[in-house]
Structures are given as C-alpha cells and as structure tokens.
Write a structure and sequence with these properties.
This protein has 4 helices and 9 strands. Helix 1 packs antiparallel against helix 2. 25% of the residues lie in helices and 32% in strands. The strands form 2 sheets. A 6-stranded mixed sheet has the order 3-2-1-9-8-7, with helices on both faces. The protein has a 3-stranded antiparallel sheet with strand order 4-5-6, with helices on one face. A hairpin with a 2-residue loop joins strand 5 and strand 6.
Length: 210
C-alpha cells in the first residue's frame, strides 16, 4: 500500500491538530502532548498498561508521515508510578456560576485542591486561570496562552490551545473536548502540559498534567 502524500506542513495548524486527534483515538493511548523541539514536531504519547509500545510508536510515525510534512519526533512511554492519574493535575469539574458568564474550575494535584474563575466566553481568560491554578497548587507554570480556538465539528470539535514558555519561547499545543467550551479549553491546557517536566513535586521544577 502506497504512503499517502503529506497534507500539511509543520506550520499548518489544521494538519497538526488532525494528527493529534488521530493519535488520541489509537488503542492504548491515554494522553497526547504536541510541542516543538529543535525545529521538529514533538509528539509525546502515554500508553496504558499492556500496550505494545513499539507498535504504537510505529503507528504514530505512520500517521505523522501521512498528515504532516516535516521532521517528527515520537516519544511513547508506558505507564509507571510517576504516570498514574493521581500523580497528575486533574480537572475535577467546571461549574457555571449562576447569574454570571463566569465558570469555576476545580483542579486537583495529589492531596491539593484549588478553584479558579474566568469568563467562560473568553478562552484566553480560561486558559490563564488554569495556569494560575497550577501556580496555586505549588507547581511551576512559566507559560502564557497565546491563542485559543474552537475546533469545528469536522475535525472533532472541542478546543485548541497554544502556550508559549516565558523564557525559552517554546510553544506547546493542546486539544481537548469538554462538556462546555470552558471545560474543553481547561482540558486542552492540561493536555498541552501533560509531559512538561514530568514528576514534579509542589514547589519543584515542573509539573505533570492530564
């Protein structure tokens, strides 16, 4: 079977978003993060217990070759103690605040809990609130949200968030669905950071998010 021609460059957001959505649907995939590393597209995948990591890595490379024109680095990790859900930041619930356009987002990390608020119609405000919530949990969040887009139904709906590191300028992207647009934006922020300095402790050097 011939390999399909790549349909997008690394700078084509639609093709990169489509790749992330396709990878999320692969059997055994629990988390996906997309970013940049030394001019290449970095696709980080966390696999469920028992997943065939070699086969999964090969399938992600196949999808990348079909959807993106440019160098792609694929990292696939099996689940370890550091990757357990309770070791990651979780969005517990997104609650609309009656009589307002605001939403309250509840985040949890191990035994820590925090709640942040933002206008749910303002995607950048929601993303900023989630980053502030990470700081409130004692986790470093040296990122700013530079773009938030609602995704059309034909590529899976939900939200796309682009984050930029304050010092290095590195960009990371997250895609997620949710029960509301604010919920999707919050989950997309955490997905974008789900491999950022994995294994951090409150007050430490990094965070693992999901």
């Amino acid at each position: 079977m011939s390999t399909p021609e790549p349909v997008a460059t690394l700078e084509d957001a639609m093709g990169v978003d489509q790749l992330e959505l396709e990878v999320r649907q692969l059997a055994g995939v629990t988390f996906v993060g997309v970013g940049r590393r030394d001019g290449s597209l970095l696709v980080e995948v966390a696999a469920a217990d028992g997943a065939d990591l070699a086969s999964l890595r090969a399938e992600v490379h196949r999808l990348a070759a079909a959807l993106v024109d440019g160098p792609v680095v694929v990292e696939v990790l099996g689940r370890t103690d550091e990757n357990r859900p309770e070791a990651r930041v979780r969005l517990q619930v997104t609650l609309p605040l009656p009589g307002t356009t605001a939403a309250e987002l509840h985040l949890a990390y191990r035994q820590r809990r925090t709640a942040v608020q933002a206008d749910e119609s303002d995607g950048l405000a929601v993303a900023g609130a989630v980053l502030a919530g990470l700081a409130a949990l004692g986790l470093p969040a040296p990122w700013s949200a530079t773009a938030v887009h609602a995704l059309p139904e034909e590529i899976g709906a939900g939200a796309l968030v682009v984050l930029e590191h304050h010092r290095s300028g590195e960009t990371r992207r997250g895609v997620a669905r949710g029960r509301s647009q604010a919920d999707a934006v919050a989950r997309a922020v955490l997905n974008a950071l789900n491999r950022f300095l994995e294994g951090a402790r409150p007050g430490g050097a990094g965070a693992a998010c999901a």
